Amino acid sequence: MNFDLIFRHAPDLLRGVWTTLWLTGSSLAVGLVLAVICAVILTERIPVLEWLVRGFVYVFRGTPLLVQLYLVYYGLSQFPEIRRSFLWPWLREPWFCALLVFALNTAAYTTEILRGAIANLRRGELEAAVAYGMSPFTRLRRIVLPAAFRQALPQYSNEVVFMLHGSAIASVITIQDILGVGRTINARYYVTYEGFVSAAVLYLAVTFVVVAIFRQLEKRLMRHLAPVAAPR
Amino acid sequence: MRHAPLTAFAALLAFAAPAAAADLRICVEGAYPPFSEISPSGELIGFDIDMAKALCDEMGKSCDLVATDWDGIIESLNTKKCDAIIASMSITPARMEVVDFTNKYYHTPGAFVAEKGAGLEGTPEGLAGKRVGVQRGTIHDDYMVGEFPKANLVRYGTQEEATADLAVGRLDAVAADKATLDLGFLRSADGEGFEFFGGDQAVPKYHGPGAGVAIRKGDEELKQAFNAAILALRADDRYKTINEKYFPYDVYGAEEGEGGSTAAPAEEAVPAE
Asked: Most buried among A168, B158, B175, B245, using CB within 10 Å?
């Protein structure tokens, strides 16, 4: 291991961490908004839209992330119509293709997580809300979504970690994320481990922080479910 | 009969074992037309591939060609997944720290391509802020980093990916070997509407004395065998036949002195960064 090489490229690696963070973070943010909409459509069984969402979830959960990225980055650019369209200034950018694919992919998985969480809500809470005369939207805002988010949190933290690691494939479309910088170091200096080991350590560190944040979040939001000392 | 599972397991092992082991395993690439590419029927074809076969023939050895990603092709050699690399690898001082090279088997300069009429100049200022694609870990990558610090460098795993992105307009230019740009891109359907600019790029410090066969450090016997085979192909018309199959000009470059190309003078060493 040539540590000198790694230290010399520390600024590049840190830029890689930043790229990974914002790419993953923005994908998760966009994906979550989409997922909430999709999950509500599924549970409210809104005609037509329901089937569209089902199809979307089926396709994005049924194909590998890498294939989705290739289709958008190399596939769409093959059509001259697309290259002439208003979409091209966006689709020509690797970061946009990655963001688009990652956001749709995580949206599909998160939709299923939220749908499951909503389906498992206690009926009593919903009936109470109806009895109070809350409109469906108020019910959603005050009762259904907060409870579903809480319930879905442990599963969603897994999805966040998967997305973080999945984002490594952005490096195949020239993005200099953590793995991209690692590959460049390996290739430019004809070394095997330096780039990959640095990348692995950085992913590990970011994952550690993400997991810690979710643990704190779970502690705060699930406080009412924590076992307490029984009163004597 | 009581050992049926064992027998089945043995049969499985026999099936998994490599067929007759060849004398040499040679790492080639496969995404670098016209030097190496995968034909639609899945075969390896190209100048490097024909050259590898002809060299093995001349040495009287049986060879297995192993398609290997450019990223990690040197590691494959040094971890003995293969015994030689014939993949248009330029002889450079930096690479000579980790592998040995035979004499060159061809030598073509570097070059730039861009869309026709783009009006780019192949100078550090002319390419400042332009998106220039290179294959990661090549001499062209080093050249861009060293001499064109203001260019916006975009790195690809293969040469084909770089020219594909140039063709659809994601890049302003590509820096690569002139022969691969010419035959592998400009004269293909994708390359219509693109042209060379900035002239030949041949800075000895970066571009080196040509492409050689890479072998493991200290594998002197194999090195001599390859050197002799290269000379032998060059001496009769076997080199010429392969050359003409792919190129309208001789890619060997200047005739070589007495095997001097592997001993690059120390002052040509590429700085570590």
From this structure: B175
